[in-house]
Every structure is written in C-alpha cells, then in structure tokens.
Specification:
two-stranded antiparallel ribbon; 13 helices; iron ion binding; binds zinc ion; transmembrane; globular; membrane; mainly alpha; C-4 methyl sterol oxidase
Length: 337
Amino acid sequence: MSLNLNATFVGSSGDFTASQLYAGLNVDFSQLNWFERQWMAWYIWIGNPLIATGIASFILHETVYFGRCIPWIIIDAIPYFRKWKLQPSKVPTPEEQWECTKGVLFSHFTVEGPAIFLFHPVAESFGMSTWQVPFPSWQAMIPQLAFFFIFEDMFHYFSHQLLHTPLLYKHIHKLHHKYSAPFGLAAEYAHPLEVMILGTGTIFGPLLYCWFRPNLHIVTVYIWITLRLFQAIDAHSGYDFPWSLQHIVPFWSGAEHHDFHHMAFVNNFSTSFRWWDRLLGTDKKYLAYRERMRAATKGLDAAKRKAVEEKMVAEEEEAGFAAEKEVERQAEGKKNQ
Ligand SMILES: [Zn+2]
Ligand SMILES: [Zn+2]
C-alpha cells in the first residue's frame, strides 16, 4: 500500500480527502516509522475510518484468538506434554475442539463482530485517537496497559461472581462451564450475554481512561486486546509448565488458578491476578486443595504420584458437579416460588 494523500475519505462530517484529514494533524510525515506509515495507508486505502477500524479490529481479534489457540491444539496432540496437564486424564478430543470452535466462531460473527464495528464511533466519542499518527511512545502505553489489566481483573472478579448466582448461572454462565477441564479454544465459549457482560470489563477500561485523559490511541487498545486474549486462552489451556508466568510473577493467575475454577466449580473468580480472590477469601478451597495435593504426593515416585493426582482430581471434580447441581436446584426453587 502506498500513501495517496489525495484519496477521498467518507466521514461522518461529509467527504474529505485523506490529505485534508491528515493535513489537519500538523505531523511531519517524514518522521513516521514503518508501522505508522502502514496505519495511514490502511485508513486511506479503505477510505472510511469506521469501516477501516472495524475490519482491522475484527481481523486482529480472529488472528490473535485462533493464532494463540493453535500451539495449545498441537500441545494437546503430543503425549509428552501430558505431565504438565492439570487434569491429565482429560485431554480434549479433536471432535470436542471442533464443536467448541464452531460455537466460538458463531459467537464471533453474531455477537462480537457487530460490537467490534460499533467500537469506532464509541471510542471516538470518548476522545480516543484512531486513524491518527504518530503512535504514542511505549512510556505512555505502559501505565495505560497496567490500568486496563487492573480494571478488567476487578470488573471480571465481581461480575463473574454474579454469574454464579443461581438464575444467572442456569441461564447464562452454565454454557462456559460445559468444560470442567478447559482447553485454549474454550476461552470465549460462552453465552452471548456473558460475552457482552465480561467483554465490558475489557472495553470499558480504555473508555473510562479516555474520559479522564485525552492521550489514548486505539493501537494501545489493540496491544491490550492481544495481551488479554493471550491471558484468557492461556488460563484455559489446562497446562501449568515450570516456565508458566505464575511461577515468575506470583500474583499472576494463569491456568493453574482458573483450571481449578472449572474443575471444582467454586473459588478463583478473577482473570489476571490472584489478589481479589486472596483478599476476599474466595480461594480458600483452592489453597486447601493445593496443600492436600502437596502433602499426599510428597516423596512419591512418578507412577504413584500420578495415581494419587488422578484420584484427587476426580474427587474434586465430583464435588464440583455436586456444587453445580446445587446451584441449578436453587435456580429451579427460585423459579417455582
Ligand atoms: Zn465461572
Ligand atoms: Zn473459564
């Protein structure tokens, strides 16, 4: 793509040329880096900022989501990695992964796609930069990204707990809990309302930031979305490697934390960090389970250790099924009142 500053733009304020649009920026175009020049070329080529942002956002989401899932699909197919699987006997079959992919794709095209196309006008109305160049410096981006992580984790923690109340669970969140041993592709396998509710935590952080500070660029939001997708997919991967992030950053949740939520149905409601669950005591069962597992497998050889682990995982999962049934029974009770 080459820059054509005479291309015609179709904008909400009428037609205008790209040169007019970018001329108003007072930018020395010769100083732009390669990414910034491609960014400009994209907006000029598409000719409509709303559509250009919508297409770019949707492609980014699909590429990152499925791109990040592929390594986990490969890992699931290689028995060597089983020793790091949190629920070793629960490896998803190709049929299960395909069923899940179809569900996720349906949701992407019917719910997330339209919402993504609405993002541009909403973002602009909050004062976010979209087509503008140059991009902000990484020094400006880092505190913004930190804020988005902290905000999303807090929002998710409380709304996820709400989704576990009987009626919301039965009608909305149950779908996401279909997999008691999750895998990467299951990260966004959820009811459309859940996608909207929990997606708010991801999107509202950047909008809230714009409300107070005028220096947010959508490219920073793209970096945030990429990191957030990596976080969500990895948390559902079902694997805890010695090099997983939670072993380096102790307050990072990771798969080891969220896998327990799917297996035991209780505790660990947050996404990225462990602090809300620790602070409000919603990790007590998880910590007790970890301690029991540690004590029971101490000093055992690999074969015995595996047998004990499998037995304890199965018991915890049974308890999880019972807890889920109890919540659904309460929902029935509420309906009949
Ligand atoms: Zn849940
Ligand atoms: Zn989950």
